[in-house]
Amino acid sequence: AQSVSQHNHHVILSEAASLELGCNYSYGGTVNLFWYVQYPGQHLQLLLKYFSGDPLVKGIKGFEAEFIKSKFSFNLRKPSVQWSDTAEYFCAVKYNNNDMRFGAGTRLTVKP
Amino acid sequence: KAGVTQTPRYLIKTRGQQVTLSCSPISGHRSVSWYQQTPGQGLQFLFEYFSETQRNKGNFPGRFSGRQFSNSRSEMNVSTLELGDSALYLCASGRGLAGVSDIQYFGAGTRLSVL
User: Fold this and answer.
1) Which residues fall within 8 angstroms of residue B52, CB to CB, at 6 or more apart?
2) Interval B23-80: pLDDT, tens
């Protein structure tokens, strides 16, 4: 079955620390990859996406993600987090049959 | 343009009742997907509708059903509610064109509490 795994359930960092959140998905041919963010009390918003081309994609607010096809991974990174990055982050994969699957989410807490 | 609109925002029901949730997609979007969000489980896919037809379905019991109207608005129904159905139900819309890269845009959700 198609599935998405996020390695970390809860990550706690201090401001200015670097961030990397892991995401792996089950093989399913051609995929579209996404990271969504849900700030406290707000709805899910798209952070960045990968459709094709350069496997290193840049999103909003200084986030980036790298697609490594051989590892079925799409890890999210940010060199220096801010308190305002405190949120829940979801990795999502859209398979070729239009099936969209989300990971369980990673809660990020950034201490000021 | 207006985003994805879900109504109502909050619902309180008792076990055994049924409930209907509504979702109006972004204008021009023909695909509507429904998800159940619970703490620790993330978003679990319920189903996707495209042009009034259910195109994909997740692993939920038959108590969960949906439909889509000709104007792309969608409703989700849950019959014989159970305590475990308490969750945030999210709706997402997209162009839904097969084989074409697509983005889903989410509504604010309907928070259902089953007592």
Assistant:
1) B67, B68, B69, B70
2) 999 999 999 999 999 987 789 999 999 999 998 888 899 999 999 999 999 999 999 9
Query: Would you say B106 and B17 are in contact if contact means Cβ atoms under 8 Å apart?
Result: no
Instruction: Establish if A97 touches chain B: CB-CB under 8 angstroms.
Output: yes
Inter-chain touch A36–B106, beta carbons under 8 Å: yes
Distance from C-alpha of B12 to C-alpha of B5, rounded to nearest angstrom: 19
Contact B96, A98 (CB under 8 A): yes
Q: In sequence order, what are the beta bridge partners of A84? A: none
Contacts of A101 in chain B (CB under 8 A): 45
Find, among A50, A3, A9, A59, the residue nearest to A27 by Cα. A3
Given CB atoms, is A94 within the 8 Å cutoff of chain B? yes
8 A C-beta contact, residue B35 and residue A102: yes
> For residue B4, which of B89, B113, B112 has the smallest C-alpha distance?
B89
| Backbone phi, psi, residue B4, to 5° | -80, 130
Q: Which pLDDT band holds residue B1 (cuts at 50, 70, 90)?
A: low
Higher pLDDT, A97 or A92: A92
Residue B15 and residue B35: Cα distance in Å, rounded? Answer: 21
DSSP B10-79: EEEE-TT--EEEEEEPPTT--EEEEEEEETTTEEEEEEEEETTEEEEE-S--TTEEEEE-TTS-EEEEE-
